[in-house]
Amino acid sequence: MHEAKKLSKILERLSDKKEFPVDPNQVAEMLCGLTPIECFRFIKVDMDDNVLKGGFVNTKRLTTLAGLYGDEINIACVFYSRNLTVSEERFCVIKELMHAIDPVDISTVNKPEHLISLIQHLSLSREILYGKFMKGITEETIRPLVDTMGDWRALLVMVPEKEREAVIESYKKNEITKEGIAAYFEIPKNYADAIIDNDFWDFIMTLWLGLDEFLDHTKAEAA
């Protein structure tokens, strides 16, 4: 199953969710059913969160320390800084969890020019990317957006579409503030604007769900 389809499966399963925020353990359970990973471990560590807030390692470990030939189990470890706030911690862990469905050749989009090609291939509007949320960003300074793609994928998981639409209606009626939206979903405050902007939301949804098709296209061109 292509990775974008796995993401679609997760979004579909969360689509009718009524209680928020999204539980990382629930996401981990879904990923165990969609990937070879059998178990996730969440490990709080000391790290400079100004440089790195979390990390993902997929490895195999023995189920028991007793005996030389114990059965192996495929375990993925998610590391995150102990200095994070509750909302930062949840967001970081879910962002790292989603690396479990990264395409094998995800490095195809690990450079700025690759992201530009992806946007062009999917016929997405650069004005959205460089506009309201990315002021000052140009093709020469787009590198930070490669990492930001991971943030966007976490947002898609943490803010299911039906609930996003309901929250937008409440926002229009002044029943909830942007700060309230961020608190409700337990996401970083700076992403509240993204949630209420339909054009930008469609942009990041298309970007991630179109990634596999882009990678297939890239392989075909290279063949």
TrEMBL record:
Protein name: IrrE N-terminal-like domain-containing protein
Native source organism of the sequence: Acetobacter indonesiensis
Lineage: Bacteria, Pseudomonadati, Pseudomonadota, Alphaproteobacteria, Acetobacterales
